[in-house]
Structures are given as structure tokens and as C-alpha cells.
Amino acid sequence: MSGPGAVQTGSSWVFRVEAVTKSYDGETNATDGLTMEVAPGEVYGLLGPNGAGKSTLVKQVIGLLKPDSGRITLGSFDLVEDPDAARQLCSYLPQAQMPIDSFKAREAIDIAGMIRGGPAAEVKRRREEMIEALEIGEWRDVLGARLSGGVKRLVGFAMVTVWPGRVIILDEPTNDVDPLRRRRLWEQIRRMGSEGAAVLLVTHNVMEAEKSVDRLAIINEGKLIAEGTPSSLKADDRGRLRLQLMLHPGNSTPELAPLVRDHVRVGNNLVTVIDEDAAGAGIVWAQDLLARGVIEEYALGATTLEDVYVRLTGHKSESER
Ligand SMILES: Nc1ncnc2c1ncn2[C@@H]1O[C@H](COP(=O)(O)OP(=O)(O)OP(=O)(O)O)[C@@H](O)[C@H]1O
Ligand SMILES: [Mg+2]
Question: Global pTM?
């Protein structure tokens, strides 16, 4: 091995998921014909509401579950037929926390790197880099059992990326992490891509994903319902604005003004889409609703990937809860 992930050279390391279907109960498909491709160096986001099938997909990639049908390949390796290769070539941060109670943070990172085949001195050097980059130095010698949820998450991230494979799979890595360290974490995720790994990243946070991924897929009920770069997914919304109305709790959806092109209601939040040149009329309408006590507040702004997400899935993401 000449460096992290350099298990084999000379072949193409494109990661492919082809028509992967898996049912737990024999009736509904938790993943239903999913197909996607992630190139080395690419950060690919997997978004979708609870129960969409994201974790079920990543568990099939790393051999924890076997697909009922479909193929998962990495370069010339068939990861379904060859689970040993899957374990060797993929680094995986599970959605659940890593069991590191009896290790100090730095020991857990070192052990994980060495299990993956990293030489001790090199692993330690990279461990220090990551501890510094993630700003968790003050917990370097603290036992896992004493770490807060967010710090444990960051240590888990360092464990799986200190000596990464060709594919890095992160299932909600930013859970419980504070906003400052989230930014550091996203920088490190980008760094993994720039070092040549294909990064498959599961997240609920559409706003963060929008800033940090190269491409993303939106998954709902086991199916891929949209895929592309963040800006290509927003292309349909060009020339439009979002007018968001916060209804008084319990109020029913008011009659929509003719200028409303599209709308979705989640809880007391009514997100409408209007044309840019109808902005003035939109504000007049919203102010009238405010004056009549139908809504508590409103906001007019650019459409975001969140709007696309809400429209396609009927759910709000973590960014807007
Ligand atoms: N071990 C299991 N046995 C039976 N059904 C399961 C199992 N794990 C998941 N499911 C079901 O499969 C579907 C997909 O679940 P999955 O955990 O993949 O969703 P997810 O997209 O990761 O959701 P979340 O965002 O909540 O983590 C859900 O309907 C879930 O209830
Ligand atoms: Mg999950």
C-alpha cells in the first residue's frame, strides 16, 4: 500500500449500484430498483425522509445485507459476491454510534486505522491531523464512554477516514455535531473526495448537502425520485420565488391567490412558489393574511433545494425543522 486507500492501482474505481432491490418482509421493497454511480473524487449525497431506504442501501453496499436482486460494483469488484472486498475497499460510518466506550479517543482512531492496514506511524500522523481539523483535541485522551454524542460522532468519523478505503460511506455523520464542528466535518468530507475516494453521504440536512455535495439523489419509499447537481435540481425553479407562510397553529390552508404556482403544506408551514414578477402581489396577499390573523408570519426568498426536496417528498428536511 502506498497511501490511504491505495489498495489497487491501475483500474477505474467507479462505484456503481444497479437496480438494487431489497425487501425485509417479502412485501414492500425497502430499496426498490436503486441505480446510481459515484466517481472517485465525488461527494454524492443521499437524501430522503425517515424510512426512505437510505440505510438499507448502505448496508447492502458494505455486505451487512444481501440484495434480493441487482448489482453493486466498485471498479472490477463485485461487492455483493465478494463481501471481503467490500469490507476492505469501503469505509463505513454507521448511523448508530461506534462502540468505543473503553478506548480513549485517540486510541480508537489509531486502532481503526491499523485494522484497515495503515502503518502505525502514518496512521498516528493522520490521526493528529484529523483531531486538529475537527477541533476535538481537548478530548484526545478521554474515554469513549465519557464523550458527548457529538464528539463521539466526530471520533467515529476520524476512525473511518483515518485510513480510508476507495468508497467512504457516511450515514448521517453530522448528527449531534455543533454548527462550528459541522463545518469542519464538511471540510474533511470534501478533503476525502479530493484525496480520491468516492464519498456516499446520507443526510437529512438538505441545506448543508446543497453546499457540500457534487451530486445528490433524493430517495423516497425505496425509489430514486431525483438525481443531479444541486443547481440542476433547482433548474425548474429558475425565475421563481418561495413565499413561505407560517399558519396559526390549527388553521386550515387559506384559499390560495391565483399567483401561487405550487404549494406544499407541512405542519403549520405553507410553502408556496410564485413567479419573480409576482413578488409585489405576493407580499400584498401575505400581508392581508397576516392582518386577518390567518398566518403568524411570512418570508419571501429565493427557492432552495429544500423547496425541491419538500415538493418531491412531501417532507421537510432537518434544515428547516
Ligand atoms: N431490520 C429491519 N427489519 C425490518 N424492516 C426494516 C429493518 N430496517 C429497516 N426496515 C424498514 O425498511 C424501510 C427503510 O428503512 P431504512 O432504515 O433504510 O430508512 P432510512 O432512509 O435509513 O431512514 P432514516 O432516515 O430514519 O434513517 C423502512 O420502512 C424501515 O421500517
Ligand atoms: Mg437511516
Answer: 0.86
Report, at the CATH architecture level, how domain 15-229 is classified: 3-Layer(aba) Sandwich (3.40)
Rounded Cα distance, 235 and 226, in Å: 12
Give ranges for CATH 3.30.70 in the chain: 235-316
Q: Which of 184, 186, 233 is nearest to 205 (CA)?
A: 186
Whether ligand 1 lies within 6 angstroms of the CB of 220 is answered as no
Closest CA to ligand 1's atom 9: 56
Model pLDDT for residues 76-103, shown as the tens digit of each residue: 999 999 999 998 999 999 988 888 889 9
Closest ligand by atom to 94 CA? 2
Helix axes 149-161, 120-133, angle to 10 degrees: 140
Mutation pick for ligand 1 pocket among 23, 24, 205, 220 (CB with most ligand atoms within 8 Å)? 24
Whether 175 lines ligand 1, by a CB cut-off of 6 Å, is no
C-beta 217 within 6 A of ligand 1: no
The residues with which 169 forms a beta bridge, in sequence order, are 92, 200
Instruction: Dump pLDDT digits (tens) for 150-173.
Output: 999 999 999 999 999 999 999 999
Whole-angstrom distance, CA of residue 297 vs CA of residue 307: 18
Range(s) for CATH 3.40.50.300 in the chain? 15-229
Class of domain 235-316 (CATH, top level): alpha beta
